[in-house]
Amino acid sequence: MADKPVADWDALAREWDLWRADDRQPTLWWRDDDAVDVTPALDELRRVARVPLALAVIPMALERPLQERLGPYLRNWGQVRVLQHGVGHLNHAPAGAKKSEFPATRALGEIELALTVAATFLRDTLGPDVLPVLTPPWNRIGAPALELLLRLGFHGVSRFDAFPYVAKTPELPRLPPFREINTQIDVIDWRGTRGFVGAEPALGWLVAHLSARRQGVVDPGLPTGILTHHLVHDTATWRFLENLQDWLARRGELGVFQDPRALWPLP
Ligand SMILES: [Zn+2]
Asked: InterPro entries under this entry (predicted)?
């Protein structure tokens, strides 16, 4: 399929070596979505992740309210940082349109109020380590709401780049401190089995994005993002995440995973 390039570990090694031959560092980052509580799956994520991780937490989901015990749990997890995953993870798109909590059709005043209340609640519940970065549910946000983020004091946004990776016109001025840093490798096969997408497509996207960065097709300075959803991982998904870290560790390259605090530094 056109949206699923395939690659194996040898192809990753070849791409990696091309970066290192130029004395460049092929940076990665890891975003995991939909946390609201301490669960066995979150325990597993903490066990599996040996690197810095950005946990996208839903502040005010109606059916899965944010649990206070998540705060102390995350404070004891040194390598995790929290991003704001929308408000309630509720669909406000018109019937028939792709799901979005912040579509261009939703009243901007309502979005502003919801985002502000949710951001305050998230910080009050989880503590000051929450980064002022929005990861919109379903990776979608309309242009008016995106502009609003600047005014509301957000430092960035994180969405998803689908393959093929091509240069995009920035929707917002690239003014510090606002940065859009996206993910590209979604390990879940949402439209198919809802299990692991498979090593070949996952590595295919990883190699393709690294290659696009190395060749300057997309911004080489922005890290390649792994997107996970701990609540739905099957054994094969966990195994792949372990294998990727093992592969990097064998090369002494685990340090390529960027700390979210460095991606969105506070002034
Ligand atoms: Zn989500």
From this structure: Glyco_hydro/deAcase_b/a-brl
| From the candidate CATH numbers 3.40.50.300, 3.20.20.370, 3.30.2350.10, 3.30.70.330, the one assigned to the domain spanning 9-251 | 3.20.20.370
Burial 224-239 (b: 16+ CB within 10 A, else e): bbbbbbbbebeeebbe
pLDDT tens-digit readout, 135-149: 999 999 999 999 999
175-210 CB burial, b ≥16 within 10 A, e <16: eeebbbbbbbbbbbbeeeeeebbbbebbbbbbbbbb
Q: In the block, which residue shows the tokens 């390990």?
A: 187
CB atoms within 10 A of CB 98: 10
Sorting pLDDT into bands at 50, 70 and 90, what band is 128? confident
Distance 32 CA to ligand 1 centre (A): 9
Please compute the mean of the pLDDT values over residues 5-16 and round it to a whole number: 97
* Residue 207 CA, ligand 1 centroid: distance in Å: 25
Is the pLDDT score of 237 beyond 50? Answer: yes
Taking the CA atoms of the chain, what radius of gyration do you get in angstroms? 18
197 CA to centre of ligand 1 in angstroms:
17
CA of 99 relative to ligand 1 center, distance in Å: 11
